[in-house]
Amino acid sequence: MTVTRFGYGAMQLAGPGVLGPPADRDGALAVLREVVDLGITTIDTAGAYGPLVTNELIREALHPYPESLHVITKAGATRDEHGGWPVARRPDQLRQQIEADLKSLGLDTLDLVQLRLGSGERRLEGSLAEPFETLVDLQQQGVIRHFGVSNATAAQVAEAQAIAPIVSVQNLYNLAHRDDDELIDKLAAENIAYVPYSPLGGFSPLQSTALSAVAARLGSTPSSVALAWLLHRSPNILLIPGTSSAAHLRQNVVGAGLSLGAQDLAELEMIGGRA
Questions:
Q1: What confidence tens digit (pLDDT) does each residue in 81-133 have?
Q2: Is 49 a catalytic site residue?
Q3: Nearest CA to 179 among 129, 121, 126, 259?
Q4: What is the pLDDT of residues 206-240, one digit of tens each?
Q5: CA dihedral (96, 101, 106, 108) positive or negative
Q6: Do the domain assignments include residue 267?
Q7: Pick the catalytic residue: 49, 173, 194, 197?
């Protein structure tokens, strides 16, 4: 599975609260087509987005898929009538989610399924053996090619690796939230991708005097600098910033290619408390 280091996260294509259809369906479809036109080879989605809204948009916009395009999905949570994200990791629930992903995306096999752990954005200790072994069984049935884990502790990553090879870890990480520094370095040595979600701070965008100062000096934007820093941080980082705007998508792609000098990097390191 060969991918570019800049991917696209489809979460923002669903309606408010990641529920229901987008206000501008044609605009959402245009963003997805722009993803492919820009040469991006990875789209991150989940059946819980909508639910199934982003999957169906991806299928409508891009099916039959280009051979170079890989769709990453997540399983382990569903949605309730209040917009919550209840845990859904029993074997029967996971099988239902995988079946729904296959149908809504129009696929016979999913390239990569990441087991969603924790609760919301909180990581919780505990064994992942039963749900992960369910995904392994589904791989043996030919409906999953590769595995990853999301919102996982280092211990859970190690437990997954003891059961079957993984190709990715998708956790909260950005300039200001760097708890996974040690894990990223370990995964890089093992050629396992690290996929930071909320690379720009998510629903609370990164706010930093240092970040703004570096951006101003480079004639760029804080979001571009933050994305460029992530790519500089480690060669195994795969970005999946999301947007519902084709223009913003193009800005993100250009911004991620920004060149950061030694002074820029030193100032940015201070944001995470690392001088």
A1: 889 999 999 999 999 999 999 999 999 999 999 999 998 778 999 999 999 99
A2: yes
A3: 121
A4: 778 889 999 999 999 999 999 999 999 999 999 99
A5: negative
A6: no
A7: 49
Within-domain flag for 220: no
Element (H, E) at 212: helix 209-218
- pLDDT of 122 reads 85
- Residue recorded with tokens 């001088």: 275
Say whether pTM exceeds 0.85.
yes
Where residue 204 falls among pLDDT bands split at 50, 70, 90?
low
Domain count, the chain: 1
User: CA-to-CA distance for 154 and 162, rounded, in angstroms?
Assistant: 13
Q: Nearest Cα to 106, choosing from 148, 136, 65?
A: 65
Q: Cα separations (Å) of 254 from 176, 193, 207, 228? A: 22, 22, 21, 10
| Domain contains 223 | no
The CATH number that applies at residue 177 is: 3.20.20.100
